[in-house]
Amino acid sequence: MFLNCHSFHSLRYGTLSIEELVEQAAVLGLKELVLTDINTISGIYEFKKKCEEKNIKPIAGIEVRRGNELLYITIAKEFQGVGEVNRVLTSYNCDGIDLPAQPDFPNCFVIYPLSNIPAQLHENEYIGIREEELNSLFRKEYQALIAKMVILQPVTFTTKKEFNLHRILRAIDNNMLLSKLPKSEICSKSEYLRSEQSLLEAYQHYPQIIANTKNILSVCQFEFAFTTRRNKRHYKGSKEHDINKLTALAYAGLERRYGKDHAIAKQRVEKELQVIDELNFSGYFLITWDIIRYSNSMGFMHVGRGSGANSIVAYCLGITDICPLELDLYFERFLNLNRKSPPDFDIDWSWQERDMILKYIFDRYGKNHVAFCGTNVEFKYRSIIREMGKVFGLPKEELDELTKNPEKVFKDQVVQKVQEYGKLLEKFPNQRSMHACGIIISEEPLTNFTVLEMPPKGFPIVQWDMHVAEDIGFDKFDILSQRGLGTINDTVKLLEEKRGIKVNIRDTTLSKDEALCNEFLSRGKTIGCFYIESPAMRGLLRRLKCDNYKVLVAASSIIRPGVAQSGMMREYIFRHNNPDQFEYFHPIFEEQLGDTYGIMVYQEDVIKIALHYGGVSAADGDILRRAMSGKGRSRKALQKVKDDFFESCRQQGHPEELSTEIYRQIESFAGYSFCKAHSASYAVESYQSLYLKLYYPLEFMVSVINNMGGFYRTEVYIHEARMSGAKILNPCVNRSEQQTTIYGDEVYLGFMHLEKVEAKLGRLIPEERIRNGEYRSLEDFIKRIPIGIETLQILIFIGAFRFSGVPKNELLLKSRVLLGDFKPGRRAETLFEEPVKHFKFPELKRNIFEDAFDEIEILSFPVSCTPFDLLQTKYRGTVMAKDLIQHHKKEVKMLAYLISRKHVPTKRGIMYFGTWVDNNGDYFDTAHFPDCLERYPFQGGGCYLLLGTVEVDFHFPTITITKMAKMPFIPDPRYSHDEEKKYEAQERMREDVSMTFRAPYPQEHEIGLPRMKTLKE
């Protein structure tokens, strides 16, 4: 009898999850239920499964609204009816076509509210009558329509509290105070789930209405095959043509990658092709190859990573650049006959080129068949408090206090209400958004399965997330982007443009295991290089003395929280440095994990130990794999794996203590680990970056700066360029471009670094220079470039007119005389075509450090000198960074400039790890424990005097700080007569702060991990 049920997928309207709705229907003994969320089908697939678990007949529908106006409720007679409504809503969302007043949905029942009855009802159309509207039926105009009426008992909530929650959601949606929310925006108080008997009694005098309702429920079916794969099936039109094409491409690639007579590679290709064909995955491989082919034709660079790199066929097709034979990567991790869920390829492009790849995919495979995965953006605690606070009219100060102290008990009743209802909203979907990278390419039109929406990005999205996509048979293509590839790509282009040097960086033999690269790698000289530039990673490389590809692959994975959380990162470092001072836990660890000293480093290692030591089934191994990939959603399934693991270990006679320790390590991997192929892909890209940094450091650092990406702020990369021999120069209107550029060893900063100079102007200045020659003077520049006085003065202050030889002070006065109240839009009215008048300006002297303070004000760092040059003290420390390794356990005093600090939780409180440069420009690291930070906290960016004890941990020195003080700059000479502003500039100095809120990593003594075999069989 319930033809109109809402779940919380009716965003900011419904208050029930699918599970709660179905559970309550089961308690009431209902045998049929219709889900009709507002303008969405997000929940229908979960709804079907949940209903069938409770022996309830599921029926799918959609309530169609324009804004808050209810037009009609549609109920699908069979699944194809859902598609009819999807297409109309998609046209409304994506093409701006208005919703029809009376739609043509032959495979749906359409139910109109009493307020919106069309002039003529079709056979499949009805009028919904609420209980409170029954008295209206005595009116003459409705008497003749009773035969076309059905029971309309909408469901939006179940309790008074949920009704209040509904009102709050509506207020949030309308961005208004709860007290101002009009009744027209909220549902009726009668929209709750009730017993079917009470509903039938209310309509007992209208048997025709009851019969019509029952007829709809009996006629409608919701048949859906969840096991059917729904991606585009074939690239060449048939399974046979696809496997033939794939085979031809694979063998051509086999010869290109391995030569003509590589028997092992050929055998592996044959084996993989057989499995791919058997699982009907040829089309998936070919579509991926097609995308890569287009990318290559455009000269784009890509990285195929993730478990797809386990496939030699993918390697031969050029989808990945990882040789699975070299690293003993087994194909079954990617694709096997027992794997319940199909895999996907993860492919990265430069952030600058990704949209062109996406456009190709949408154009090539058709807009009706391609869309991004959606994602439900849930209400999170802080956003809930902000939203709720606005609804209840809380002032900003109270909101700030509440956000900072969520668990604090407040006396104010309104604040208590905010907290109470805020907790109910946690995990509610708030809005739909676009998945970061997941693309679906469908065999059938996607509107058969979903309404499409058009977010601001300009690519359509489906209304369900990746988990639902997988459940209903869609395998996504992950089309990702990153700035590291942009840096590599831009460096190669810059080398060819500026120096005529061509580097085939795709030839991984150029960079991988190159001797000088390995030396720099082992010394952690990797700033600017993809994935290996963070302080933690550089420290790890030094601790491992990482000097080859395979160790780098391992390092890329053990840096992940999963391995570190288990304490096995520390253990790996020890065993790598002391290979004769440990024993394997068990012979299986030596047999399966000999390459990594018996340490589980990759996802595959966990599966190997679970299978070979724990004796779990292949299906349980797949559950573990999904948990480690962050895709596992069932705690119950994971608990079963754990129970099976321990039971199997007992049956095999393994000691409980050893099994407990091993499972502790396994558990720590959940959601925080890489598969080996993923680490290998990252390692290859890291080598490519390092190769370019080593042999072409200036072009490489310019590209890093222009890609605006990496662990550090721009200033650090500019410092690195200077350390590599570059002369760093401020923007100049006759030399600079919007991006930073290079001429020989001179690096001119781009206009992009001047926050108040618009990008449009930053591009116009060099364009005009190319067209009509260099600017001859400030006056000439003003004639040719439409610019306002404020922007012009920024350019003057940064030294962009220094070519003229005119002092800044004089240029500033000239600019005011020439422009005054001039507006860029009034250039045509000026008399600039007349000869420029020459004025005699007084000679104004400048302090040598004024430029530096101008730079700090505009860029937040000095260019014409170092921060050390601006200090009041001439002291530079007793020890320099390059000598720290010789001072183990000794106290040192250093003067250093703060680069970055990382917030790290510990059981004793918050600590920080700092990264600094000394006066020589060399980097070093510090540790700041909570008790020290309490007395000597960080005080923002700048130079500090540091006192601490050096600890050398496996070749890597860190200073444990005991005292710290920020050192003052000289007074700003620009404000010599203004006491307040003399020291303001120092406050503009920046630092990079990275925040982590994970559980503290355990210390070695807390784990008590046995190195020698004390846990005996």
Describe this structure in words.
The chain has 1017 residues and is of the alpha/beta class. It is built from 37 helices and 22 strands. The strands form 5 sheets. Strands 1-2-3-4-5-6 form a 6-stranded mixed sheet. Strands 7-8-13-10-9 form a 5-stranded mixed sheet, with helices on both faces. Helix 8 (239-258) packs antiparallel against helix 9. The relative contact order is 0.06.
Number of strands: 22
The helical percent reads 40-55%
First-to-last CA distance: 64 Å
Mean pLDDT: 90
| Radius of gyration, taken over Cα atoms and rounded to an integer in Å | 34 Å
General form: globular
Arrangement of strands in the largest sheet: 1-2-3-4-5-6
By helix and strand content, what is the structural category? alpha/beta
Q: Largest sheet, if any?
A: 6 strands, mixed
Low-confidence sequence ranges = 828-834
User: How much β-strand is present in the residues?
Assistant: 5-15%
How many separate helices? 37
